[in-house]
């Protein structure tokens, strides 16, 4: 019998290599391996060959299909190996079966199969069995046993010169090191495994290696690299046609760290549904439920977090996966606390979870200690709180950025419990510095903005401590410390990536076709919209891969510098929100004063009522609502300014609201209605805008996009006003004798009818499709892309509003002016528009504005070839010094992170734009025209944007439509 077994083994290793090659093929070409195995079974193979075929099908079903089918095939493979009397074959199949049983939640049976496999196998085969048992130990969270088994396996596999299995074992050992927080050891093993994979054709294993490198990048704090590597792994898996459930788990972890918890929840829930649909692994389902629970908690949905975490705890317990069960219990406790269920029992539960996690060596242990301390503090158990917080605070000195943040948060809570305001502020400063460094490694402005959510608690604690002990100046400093930080430095320029550029071009084309289809037929085209969403995901994915280029600008906010710039006339009003109440910090005349106003929640509700009123007033016939809107403005003033409204002086006012109040039409407030008024996301942003130097030459660009009801009628009149008798066509566009349409030649739009006593077109908020006519401002074939020589006048210097001279502000009547560029019709295409906008002194853009609440960086202006999106603006070397956006929704933002805003205006401010005029509500298209003409008249006289907008509002007719239009526009910045 021994001689027969020996002969069989030699036959397998020598004469049956083609059959044996099916096993490595499962992870090189899974689909082909499955087809060949099924073909082999149809040829009445020997028990030995049939065992291999069933094992191949079992592996495929286990990892990519139905686990019940996997078990059936693997049991058949085991029985056939026994019939063939091949102990080595039986040992190998038992190891595969053990993995499948554990993934099905039958942990005891799986470990028993491994015991038999280790006993049956010898030498090289036993090493492969040990590797797979090490993998199971990792799945079960038993990392010590995993490291021991994989160490024993690697020694033998290297001696046998088994490249594939050695690379697998090194990758597994690196993954276990990552689970224990040993990032450097993991990097060494990943590097060694990658060198081995490069010598093989194991495409699925290679994709897994890229995925693992993404996990390593994430654990080391490099979120952009993690996203890039995980996306690359997804592409590799996609080519193989294999599911990616483990990849989804890892990607969701990275998304949560990047502040994208809602997206992580959506992906996790989608993967759970897909896994259930194929009867996939129970272990993976439990892990996905845990990820979904964490994502729901971070997304502010504690009830969903409770539901997902409870199921995950039950599944992990049944699978005997104590390491994972403990992590799920941590999320369960966090969700209960979020629903207001603080109790002594939860303190004990959190402390027990912290002890178990520490025993496992899990990086999440400080998080659990922090949670126990926080609950204890809420109950007034100061001694217990100090004990738990002291443990959590140890993590502040090392590890990834978010772990150190946990430590500094614990230290700040300890100081607060001890009554040390100084200690609170120091811990908050150190913690936010850590997060600053992490934030600046992110190149995408979206990730920078969302990452600030991690520092919201520290910023709030510091503000409370400042309010109690530091006075208004210190409160102002801490209000600025974590407000609109995304504007502190320019975003990283998108790479010259051909795939990204072609993707953006394709996106514009598809978006334009989808818009045309909706316009022509009134119905969306699902195929176009699906392709548009796919391209959006691709563009966004590639931009999220960008790394930050600078460690930070080091420019800390200086109250003295602000007060010097404000001087005696200008007042800056910064609104800070503490515990739901608005505090007004009034800066000016060399001091900062604090006033207490109303509740933020009430102000938000009132602001929504005002927005609804403005939408109604954009349509003629709603005049009766004007007193209601004005009354709402008075209530908003009381809630937002309170007694500070009586101390604004008579000069200009700068309002710095929190992100949640970005839609307030500030010019509607009675105390601000007649003032020179500007809005800024932060005082630091206003200072930078104030000190921004205008570009030389005073170049100006006028753009009008398609589809406006008035045809953007102010543009031809402005072009006519700024030009002279002779006009030169733009040679680049090949025009012959370009001529700007004006109201006088019958092609200038309804400018005359927009004033007092004239008829008005429908109030469609610059969103309606124009009715083709001679009066709709539609350009003729030769009116596009021309330049107009301007007159030459001296520059009037604006007087300083503070101590020292202000930068000279360019105006339409200022300095020797270069040619004005007019882009309309086919010339108003995104590449040309961006080229002309880059470095311009003034840009006026009349185009449809679309705000995307679901994806704010895809908010857009409609050009001839499709949408001009925020990602396009970020490619500019320098955005125009002044920009006027005469269309609705351009001043709308998404409030994200701690106190950040994402949208068109906030994308422009870090890129060199010092002033923007934009609109936060739908407006009457005809009423916009006289407002814009009056605004430019003020600029021509040398006024700032805020001054010119104030005068333009005053020059409008006093009917409801024009008044509402004036209130809807705001001046941002300081130009």
UniProtKB/TrEMBL annotation:
Matches recorded under Pfam families: CHAT
Domain of life, source organism: Bacteria
Region of interest called Disordered, as start-end residue ranges on this chain: 682-820
Compositionally biased spans, kind Basic and acidic residues: 736-747
Signal sequence interval, chain numbering: none
InterPro entries cross-referenced by the UniProt entry: CHAT_dom, TPR-like_helical_dom_sf, TPR_rpt
Start and end residues of each CHAT domain: 631-969
Protein's UniProt name: CHAT domain-containing protein
Taxonomic classification: Bacteria, Bacillati, Actinomycetota, Actinomycetes, Kitasatosporales
